[in-house]
Amino acid sequence: MELGLAKLKKQFEAAREWLTPLGATQIDCGEPHFSEHAVPDSVKNLQRFKRPIPGVPASPEKKVTDNPELHAVLTAYWPIDSLRAEEVLIMVDRLKIEATEEPPAEEEPVNLAPGLETQMHYIQAMQASMQDPEPDFKPQFLYISRLSDAQQIQATREAYLKAQAEAEKLAKSLGKKLLEPSFVHPTFNSRTSGNSQRLMKHQRCLELLEDCSYYLQEDEIISDDPRSVEFQVNFSLHYYCE
Q1: Calpha distance 9→12 (Å, rounded)
Q2: Cβ neighbourhood burial of 221 (10 Å; 0-12, 13-18, 19+)
Q3: Are the beta carbons of 43 and 131 closer than 8 angstroms?
Q4: Which one, 15, 25, 218, 242, has the greatest CB density within 10 A?
Q5: Is the pTM of this model over 0.70?
């Protein structure tokens, strides 16, 4: 255990020396954990439903070693609010190239008898789906978007006026008159509702953020897409009527 912790510390210092010249303004190291804790919960939940397939060999059991490997999430921050879209893409592309390891040597293709190639691909796909998930140690890039103070004020004002108009319309239909509001609460979030793909991407980003040192604020949106995001303002208004 002591050797594993010392190795992590050494790797963190090496990463700091590598990332600082690349423009990172802050570099943090998360808490050490074992390999089995590096797989997102959503992937683990899907693996619970796997069932053996007739004719497909079961996945080999992993050996338990006396010295399990330790890991930690390294988080680096780059301010990109002053960069143009193309400058962000160039910077991210450079970081990906810098972090790319040498690809593993390709295995020699196996010559199969006619008619067996499709069947072998099917069996390999089934075997892959039954194997336990492996932690992904590739660099992950997440983008935090936030509104400026002027944008928040303008969006809040517009949302309030719209919510007030809807409340007055509802009160008028009931023969009531609105008094002063008793509760006012705006919330900012991304437009992910009603789109399952967006919801899954958003959930994946939140899971990745759990191991980082960054705390997402209520008026911030996280995404794995560097393009512009659209904020949605929800306004809760409570009125007394007469």
Answers
A1: 5
A2: buried
A3: no
A4: 15
A5: no
| Phi, psi of 109, rounded to the nearest 5 degrees | -65, 145
127 and 197, same domain (yes or no): no
Least confident of 35-39, 93-97, 138-142, 173-177: 35-39
Confidence bin at 43 (pLDDT 50/70/90): very low
- Which tokens belong to 83? 């960069």
Cα torsion 189, 195, 201, 203 to 10°: value is 60
* DSSP class of 70: E
Q: What is the mean pLDDT of the chain?
A: 75
Q: How far apart are CA 134 and CA 59, in angstroms?
A: 13
pLDDT at 58: 52
Query: Encoding tokens for residue 183?
Result: 């509760």
How many domains, the chain? Answer: 2
